[in-house]
């Protein structure tokens, strides 16, 4: 198979696309485990799986199944006459994404701990199709997010122009709205298409009480018994296992209910305080509480009490909380006062706190240990700063290393930060919940917790060998990378994690080759391997312009399977290519 490239008006160059030979390590492995013979038996393969691939539990039956699948795919007739692998069959097996993946596909974390013990795959403004200012609002990006495994969907809910229905849109922008009921129906249909674990809907509520009642009706009619509605305020979050196939609502409780509670608390003081004093204090508290914990600005549609409200205040003291309020299982809110007060842990109370990416940076700098302690019991949500109009994202590591469960991302964007998010949630069978490492949950004898600023010793070293790559000639046009010759590929390999572990290295470029062979090895010492992600990118060298992108992936180091593995690459949006893959080796020392 070859390709012709035009050099000038009169000449063409022909390049042959050759099947590269297996790397020396693969040839040596075949020689060693076939005992010098020309064929590898199922028992030989089982030994290879146990000793090289780190699959100690592999049985002869497992190996026989692999042999059978390879023979079925490569030799439809031979599968009936032989039950062994040739060197080419063995190389085919190692290069097979389906049979020899770099990470597992099963849920294997303990799913019985409280929700606060997990990183949760979280979307920001989940309804936007594009930028934050003028794109359409739709249920389509919500469906896409759920199919990818996202477990937290954010909806900004506003009155429609007639004030008689509820729309989802990015408030005070030019985004075109979508009906809330349409979003709810799509969530119901697709919530558990890829994961059985709960979906949390965070509502950014800008509604009047009558429309809140309408939302309560929509929720109960759409989701019915799927809704998780605790009978009383939670003192500890339930587990993902307990909440399988459930829908959870999280928002700030309606002001009417909070005001009623505040009024009751103040009644005992009425003997020594005049009515004016009482209402004056309560109104000033209300003003302090109006800070929108998710967006950092004030709700323009919040309705403070006026004289008529005060006259009819008995209406705000129902025998039980309003229906809408009862549907809120995870209470969002920010206590009055500064950051230190916001991170305060209450004995019999749990809540969700939201901080912008800048606020988290400040909190991490001044109160890093307090943030870690807060997230052991409560939920912390981090969201992109308001100036990310193009739906870009931020580095998620700072949130994860401080225990933030909901690091909210614009899933409709793309770029390296989103690749890291995709990588983290390839963990644990891509179910959308990743158990936080013990170091973030442990407490010492004097109540000390993990200090993200501490200088730590190397805990583990990862050795990565990049053997070769293939599949570009199948997924790209002949002239995609270069009009005049085959591509010059190189691979970048590195670590994203705590600052001490972060690094990026690269192979030499291989000129004029659709199937490059690098055979280069890299070593990565890791102080916190539990939070490390292996970054892999392939680029095509361009002398005159910016190098072309040729694929990427990001893999959780904690999930890597040792040995020689096939690594499929994705495009810049995170969608897997049909054929492009690398052959790599992973080893922990």
TrEMBL record:
GO terms for biological process: lipid catabolic process; phosphatidylinositol-mediated signaling; release of sequestered calcium ion into cytosol; response to stress. Residues 293-304 have a biased composition (Basic and acidic residues). The keyword Plastid does not apply. Residues 286-305 are annotated as: Disordered. It holds the Pfam family C2. It is found in: Cell membrane. Keywords: Cell membrane, Hydrolase, Lipid degradation, Lipid metabolism, Membrane, Transducer. Its cofactor is Ca(2+). Residues 444-571 form the C2 domain. GO terms for cellular component: plasma membrane. It comes from the Eukaryota. One of its GO terms (molecular function) is phosphatidylinositol-4,5-bisphosphate phospholipase C activity. Its main location: membrane. Residues 354-440 form the PI-PLC Y-box domain. It is an enzyme of class 3 (hydrolase). PANTHER family: PHOSPHOINOSITIDE PHOSPHOLIPASE C 4-RELATED, PHOSPHOINOSITIDE-SPECIFIC PHOSPHOLIPASE C FAMILY PROTEIN. This is Phosphoinositide phospholipase C. It comes from Actinidia rufa.
